[in-house]
Fold these 2 entries.
Entry 1:
Amino acid sequence: MEPIVIRELVSISDQNLGLDLFDAIWPIPGGGREIPENLMQAFVHNGSYFVGAFSGNEILGATFGFIGINGGTHLHSHMAAVVPQSRDLGVGAMMKNHQYGWARERKIPFVSWTFDPLVRRNARFNISKLGVEISDYFQDFYGPMTDLVNAGDHSDRLMVKWNILDNAPQPSKEFLELPKGAINIEVPEDIVALRAKSIEEAMAERIRVREAFLKAFESGYKVVGFSNVHGYILSNVESGN
């Protein structure tokens, strides 16, 4: 296998490689684009972030983001995907490192993105590896989604804030036990498999986790870590616990 290289997708032909990858990861019934080609060209032409991870001429992953202004000027990373057979090669981390450097070079203070709170591998990567801050929980953030991965479920999302210009984010420590005064929110082992098995069971988990997060955030708790054993670990920032 040739070395993995991250590069910006500037030409329309390169952009289509990234769009094809997104459509393969989140297929739409009957076909169709997640993002139309002409819209992506407009984004890229006006300075948005769209990169691919390549081994030779083969694309292994892609990430797309655009500039936002709510909460201050920032890069919002809207879509990121790696082909299943390459997910153990560190491609996601390489793309995030590139995104960090791209934003820092342009003096962009922070990067935001959303992820499904029920997807365990994303929670662990974002919190334990990247050291992000979880800023908000949004119910059904995108409304109904029609792709074959998310169809039939609510699009609840956690919002991530990844500081760029301050000190480099630090990965959270591995919690083998719950700290004193902390609480935890467990998540399913594999929500995609559970959704395929029983949409009712998946929805019950969605509601359970939603209610736990909303109650915890309302009570002043903040996510401080993620554990394969305990799930999300939250500490009460108001009480100092």
Entry 2:
Amino acid sequence: MDKTREKLWRYGIAPPGGTCAVSMEKPIRFVPRQLQVIACPRCGSHHTEKLAQFGSTACKALYRCLDCREPFDYFKL
């Protein structure tokens, strides 16, 4: 899995963070989720902003780095 994440990073796509567990039961959340900090795959900066919830496909979100000003895709879990 790490090799795949590294390939996505080198291609300019921020790989998903964390792990994904397949379960039919989902917990009910009564508090808002904490914002996830996404690092820029080009310069490594954590100073990024989400431009769109859905990118070129429904499984991607569109982000922009505020340091290098480059847009990038992020694979959602």
